[in-house]
Each structure stands twice: as C-alpha cells, then as structure tokens.
Amino acid sequence: MLMMIALLGLVVSSYIRKVLIALLIALELLLLSAVLANMSTYLILDESTAQVLLALIITLAGSETSIALALIVHYYQYTSTVSLEPIN
C-alpha cells in the first residue's frame, strides 16, 4: 500500500511538474517502502545477516536525500524558484 502511494505521488508530481520537493518526497517514500518490504520479509525468514544490508540501504536513501536537497538549494539560488517550469 505504501509503495502504491509513493508511485501515485511520483506520477502526480511528474504530471504537475511544478513542485520539485514533492517529487523528492515521493521518491524517498518509494525507497523506504522497499526497505520496509524487505525488512518484513527478512523478519519472517529469520535472517539476521540481512540487517547489515538493510542498514546500508537506509544509509543510501539518506545520502540520496541529502544530495538531492543540496541540488534543490543550488537550483533555487540559480533560478530563485523551485518550480520545474523554467527547465522546459
């Protein structure tokens, strides 16, 4: 269900093409829903070694978000807007 909400957010934010931060939030929600699905699978299968993999995935999602926010701040300083319309 969470993954469907994230996919809907990606579709809607790419269709509207105005709010860049909504696109970033939907992408982060998609990554975290995949982590949640993997975590529940590993808990059911009782695999303790998968905890390291999940920690790396969560770290990767956090670093992706910080890089994307830095790019958004730089884009805002360059264009004085966060809207995607000037890109077209």
Summary tags:
88 residues; mainly alpha; Helix Hairpins; 81% helix
Overview of the molecule:
With 88 residues, this protein is mainly α. The longest helix is centred in the last third of the chain and has 30 residues, at 50-79. The chain is built from three helices and no strands. The model has no long low-confidence stretch (mean pLDDT 81). It has helices at 2-16, 20-45, 50-79. It has a single domain (2-87), classed as Helix Hairpins, CATH 1.10.287. Helix 1 packs antiparallel against helix 2 (20-45) and helix 2 runs antiparallel to helix 3 (50-79).
Which segments are poorly predicted (pLDDT under 50) over 5 or more consecutive residues? none
- The percentage helix is over 70%
Number of helices: 3
**What does the overall shape look like?**
elongated
